[in-house]
Structures
1.
Amino acid sequence: MSSGEPVMRVARIVLSILVMGQACGVFAQQTLPDPNGARRVVTATRLVAIFADLENQWLQAQQHKDESALSRLLGEDFQVWMPSVSGPVPREEWQQRAFARSLTSFQFRQMAARSLHEATVVTSFVLHETVQSEGKPTAEEYFVVDIWSKEGDQWVCTDRYISPLSSGQAAAADVKPSGKR
């Protein structure tokens, strides 16, 4: 390991934390109700379209336990950050956990994508998954932030922050204000 590698790892972690904070701000802005009560039609940007397709490929690879398809989407040093774990979960450990689950369906919404520069894009979205657990379907929701880097002509995810949403948070986002507060 060269002397520059620890510095680059720390810089990557700091960048990840800053980006996650910024993505959370974007997520918060998207969930604010329109003060006039009108519904807005949200048109996907070019980046959202590109990365929604990549996220869809990722979840399909996970659902079908397709290791080669998933490998094309994840960087060599890919790691997952979760609030319930003190440090990052390495790629191999995360993939083992992901393939151990029986993902039956998935859907993502409120996707945002922001280019930090031409070789780095941050995406954020709410992920709804249904998994088979003890013979019954179980619904789970997460807030996800992914950091994508361009390697040659291909985008690979280098870092993922994933935080479970409690059922109260998910329900609160869908409730329309009554105006009686």
2.
Amino acid sequence: MLVELGSQFEALSTELAALQNGTVVTVAPTAAPSEELIDETAIHPSAERIEAILALLDPIERAIMTTPAASVVGLGVKARHAAHVLSHYWIDSANTLDWDVRAVRLLIESTCSVAGVGLLSSQQ
């Protein structure tokens, strides 16, 4: 079950990252989509999809957190999810982190390594 949840989580997370890193088109709410404005309301054409993805991710993430890992692969799914939740742990070099943050980061990285899975692209 965790493997399927992990696949769903990864697919949605990848789509979400692509949408969030995309170019924002700035248009007035009543303007034609080709009309660009400066210092006006920004309407991101994918904002609705981002909200939909976040709504889809919530139950998947909750299930990943509550489902016990029965295999190393399942443990890898849980570790990748933990890395996603704690993505700010990968902003700086491991050597500059507080001791407790570094311990968690290294544990997640080691767990992913043993499980044979890489971290999500935002942590690499």
3.
Amino acid sequence: MELSEYVESLRGELAAVTRVAGDDVARAGELLAEALDSAVRLTLLDVLSGAAAEITSRISDASIEVRLAGGEATFVVVAAHQQEPEAPAPPAGADEEDSGTARVTLRLPDALKGRMEAAASREGVSVNAWLVRAGPPPRRGPGQRITGFARS
């Protein structure tokens, strides 16, 4: 499902509403629509994810996932009897107490994703293993947390 047509539809609606108010307001509407492009796409993905979760909660033999590839969202039906792929082995020197794994959905710009894949390929590892290696070294003591910030 290509999200661009929905974003463009919203831009068109905003342009139509602001056009009747004059050139200054119309230009402000255009600038606002451009500034909100990423937020609108993220909101659409949240809506799709919510719909997938709602559908999954009402069926017992499968789950619905939303996957994003190249700016295009797709729904994937995963049968309940399918097994999740095994988690990769922890990197050498990993803390023995940290035996759990977590699944995380991460939205990245395509350029950053490409650089991560290239770096992982150069090292001959998966993107997941590369990310684990790139994280902070394990800490000893009470409470383990990762802090930082991200920019999109």
4.
Amino acid sequence: MNYNELTLHYFETAPGAGVLAGPDVFRGAAGNRAHGTWVQFDLQVSGGIIRAARFLAFACPHTIAASAWVAEHAGGGAVSGAALPGGGVQELSERFAVPAEKRGRLLIIEDAWVAAVSSALQR
């Protein structure tokens, strides 16, 4: 499979990979490792602002790259909405040149993000 330069960069470097811990950290996950795609986001939130975001993923290079991009671009954003940083699934698909047969995996990223944001909003 061919990957665009952005996908290769984020897959190979995976900025934001890891976990966060502490009283202001909220977690959300989606997917299933047995089905080949699982994503988790940890958000550190203070004063309604996302101060840091990390991700873990068991997934294909497109999914790992897109998750890394989301985590990297989440900092400084308000936690008031559940939208993915930088746009939605369609924007991620275009940015990372995700083939049609793999676009459903981007919905798992979105579900994990929404779960993390919802966790933060329910505190």
